[in-house]
Specification:
Elements lengths: L1 H21 L11 H4 L3 E6 L7 H16 L4 E6 L7 H9 L4 E6 H4 L18 H8 L2 H14 L1 E16 L14 E4 L3 H10 L2 E4 L5 H6 L5 E4 L1 H6 L8 E17 H6 L2 H24 L1 H10 L3 E4 L1
Parallel strand pairs: 1-2, 1-3, 5-6, 5-7, 8-9
Antiparallel strand pairs: 3-8, 4-7, 4-8
Amino acid sequence: MEKVLRISILCFLVVFLLVLSAFGFASGNSGTSVQELNNPFVIKFGHMNSIEDNVHKAGLMIKENVENKTNGAFKIEIFPSGQLGENKEVLEQARLGGNIMGQVGLGNIEEYIPNFGIFLGPFLFNNWEEAVKLINSDLVREWERELEEKAGIIILAYANFGVRDLYTVNKPVRKPEDTKGLKIRVQPVKMYTEMIKSMGATPTPMPWPEVYSALAQKVIDGAEAPPRSMLDQRHYELVKYFNLTDHMLDVTVFATSVQVYNRLKPEYQEILKSETLKAADWMTNENMESHEECIKEIEKKELLLFVM
């Protein structure tokens, strides 16, 4: 009887060790990929724009291609219009290791690595090609490494969000001094607030989805954004003047958590990065090609255009 008991215990231990080995724990391996423990693995993609915006369409491209190339083992859920919080909150979730990625402004990245604030300089780039030269530089690669090491955030791709202009409710802007006394919505980023202050206006930070109601309720006198974004949010219904200031070429990024990225299988890392890059390049081309058409569309809305 005792011999039978010993054999039963031995068989149980053998089976138990085999089960552990199947999950990668037999030799003390703590590097098990996310997919092996949680299939399918899900990342939430958050952004501040509507479902009609090119950011959302780029997100759908990433979702479709990643899910197809991983046979559904890696899924992406998309949350538009700030459903996951503002850009700052999305990045903070990523920093803490959350299964999240997002399209965010470099002004938010600047809060972790100040050097990225260089991209926000007004009138810094004459065209996208000049911005790409900086993006592809060894200097920016070093900043990216610092971002990964110090903040736990990895940049997957860069994109051209568009050239930003100023639009106002009831006063045209022909020169910076014309903004004196106006309350202008800005992103909650230091470079934006300082830029508007230097023009003589009062910067009013607020989330992008709240701008329409703020214009309607006269909480603000205007805002600044690329023409496409202004059309997407229907701000033309509430303002009279669109001022072609071209004050900033807005470089944006797609970013996620280093912790989550490093737990992905190498082939899944490559799929996520390459498909995000493809989608970002598509978004860049769409935004650039549609710029002049968007301005023409604004004219059709019977807004008065002024060149500063």
